[in-house]
Write a structure and sequence with these properties.
Helix content is 41%, strand content 18%. It is α/β, with parallel strands linked by helices and 468 residues long. It has two domains: 226 residues, Aldehyde Dehydrogenase, Chain A, domain 1 (3-Layer(aba) Sandwich), CATH 3.40.605.10; 196 residues, Aldehyde Dehydrogenase, Chain A, domain 2 (3-Layer(aba) Sandwich), CATH 3.40.309.10. The chain has a seven-stranded mixed beta sheet, with helices on both faces. Strands 5-4-3-6-7-16 form a six-stranded mixed beta sheet. The longest helix is centred in the first third of the chain and has 27 residues. The chain is globular and about 90 Å long.
């Protein structure tokens, strides 16, 4: 890994700032690579998960990469242009100029997770390559089939001095995070991010951390409950809830709990008439995570919660395939329950009731800032109150998760849910150095005013700026 990083840095210095032709070539090779392996990707993902919905994989881990790269290609020419800024008076009056030149950082390290391994490895290349960088990738050891496939894909379409993949377990990840990259992008859990950031700090490597947390859903009394159920459960059951942005818990008005349950029952049955034999439903990644989720349910039940499990086909759990888990709602939750303390990452939704919208905001603000926040309703005053009085990485209104798919708005967390943001032009800027440049006026008579011997005119000029 050290030799590859040294090679990439050396090549980067020799190449200088790459022109648009080189950047477009690298972006196009990402597309060629994805087209070539589009059929193999869902197969590898399914092997790693035990079973993963092929259509979901095509949606989340194949098409999403194309969206990111096509958007970058479309905007690249404009993004690469120097960005004009205002030069200060009085020199701006006689031809002085100020602008920003965006330069490549060099080599970006990418540590990607297991839940959407293709997406969260290759989609960031849209920003990394458009900014003129090279990259080294450490994919998750939890999805070895997919990680090995990525290594094969990259080696076929890229030279190691442009892009390289390093597979391996925890020691490899630890060594990778200690390398002196020019930038490090980590996507994963908050607990691991602390170790990554600590390792990066040894070399003063700037980091972008895409984490997770407990993303809340606020359901207004003005919302259509069936529409809410359709959209919340669609987002929650995609990848069986193994999404950093999955709706983690839900606020429902105390008068609307039973309508929510009935709407959920109908929505889930419409999307998934069965689960264990359903090609569209994804398994929990492994036994450890299945046991973790089961423990959340057992803990909540022991502490007085009411559990409602959705099983439209009344399937026998003895017939469970892989580690597929039935979706469950938990009512009567409290802060002592594990399910309200830890990110769920599975098909479980705890429900909290409220009487006033202010109660929901107070609760959210009393906890760590989430990666996503979701509000359903038609009350514009209430919506504005929620937006103005909560802080989260991003927001989707009247749906969940989908703000992540918008390439023209930044994506990222805040506080424990992340640091820095990317996507679209924000990704280009994230992986660039914004070099401020000032070009002095050619009229030396004006510039000479700033040099001794100082004149009374220069004193008046300075004094005119000292004001409230």
């Amino acid at each position: 890994m050290k030799k590859t990083l040294e090679l990439q840095k050396r090549k980067s210095l020799l190449e200088g700032t790459p022109g648009i032709k080189i950047r477009l070539d690298r972006l196009n090779r990402v597309l060629d690579m994805m087209i070539s392996y589009q059929e193999q990707i869902p197969v590898a993902l399914s092997k790693d998960f035990g079973h993963r919905s092929p259509m979901a994989s095509k949606f989340t881990d194949v098409a999403s990469v194309f969206d990111a790269v096509h958007f970058a290609k479309k905007g690249l020419k404009k993004w690469m242009k120097p960005e004009k800024r205002s030069a200060s008076s009085p020199f701006n009056l006689v031809g002085a100029k100020a602008y920003i030149q965006y330069q490549p950082l060099g080599t970006v390290g990418v540590i990607s997770p297991w839940n959407f391994p293709i997406n969260l490895t290759f989609a960031p290349l849209a920003g990394i390559f458009s900014a003129g960088n090279r990259a080294m990738i450490k994919p998750s050891e939890i999805t070895p089939e997919t990680s090995n496939l990525m290594k094969k894909m990259v080696s076929e379409f890229f030279d190691p001095d442009e892009l390289a993949v390093f597979c391996g377990d925890v020691p490899v990840a630890e060594a990778f995070s200690k390398l002196p990259f020019d930038h490090l992008l980590f996507t994963g859990s908050t607990s691991i991010a602390k170790h990554v950031m600590r390792a990066a700090a040894e070399n003063l490597v700037p980091v972008t951390l895409e984490l997770g947390g407990k993303s809340p859903v606020i359901v207004s009394s003005s919302a259509n409950m069936k529409q809410v159920a359709d959209r919340v459960w669609n987002g929650k059951l995609l990848n069986s809830g193994q999404i950093c942005l999955a709706p983690d818990y839900l606020f429902v008005h105390e008068d609307h709990v039973e309508p929510w349950i009935q709407a959920s029952k109908q929505s889930i049955a419409e999307m998934f008439p069965s689960f264990f034999d359903n090609e569209d439903y994804t398994s929990i990644i492994n036994e450890r995570h299945f046991k973790r989720l089961s423990n959340y349910l057992d803990d909540a039940k022991k502490k007085g919660a009411r559990l409602i499990e959705f099983n439209p086909a009344k399937e026998d759990k003895e017939d469970r395939t892989h580690f597929k888990m039935l979706p469950t709602v938990i009512l009567g939750v409290n802060s002592d329950m594990l399910v309200m303390q830890e990110e769920i990452f599975g098909p479980i939704i705890p429900v909290k009731t409220y009487s006033k919208i202010e109660d929901t905001v107070d609760y959210i603000n009393g906890h760590e800032r989430p990666l996503g926040l979701y509000y359903f309703g038609n009350d514009k005053t209430e919506e504005a109150f929620v937006l103005d009085n909560t802080i989260s990485g991003g927001v989707t209104l009247n749906d969940v998760v989908f703000h992540v798919s918008q390439e023209d708005i930044p994506f990222g967390g805040i506080g424990p849910s992340g640091m820095g943001h990317y996507h679209g032009v924000d990704g280009f800027k994230r992986f660039s150095h914004a070099k401020g440049i000032y070009k002095q006026s050619s009229i030396d008579a004006v510039v000479k005013l700033t040099r001794p011997p100082f004149t009374s005119f220069f004193d008046r000029l300075i004094s005119s700026r000292i004001k409230k």
